[in-house]
Amino acid sequence: MAENTYPFRLGNFDCMVIKDGGGPRDVSNMFVGVSRDEVVEALKPHNLDVEALEFSINILLVNTAQHHVLVDTGNGSARGGRLVEHLRAEGIEPETITTVIITHGHGDHVGGLTDGGRLVFPNAQVWMPKADWDYYTSESYLATLDKAVASYAIENFYRPLKDRIRLFEGEAEIVPGICAIPTPGHTYGHSVVEVTAGGERLLQIADAMHNPFQLDHLDWSPTFDLQPDVAADTRRRLAARAASEQSLVIAYHFPFPGLGRIVGSDGAWAWHPLG
Question: Is residue 273 part of a domain?
Answer without folding.
Answer: no
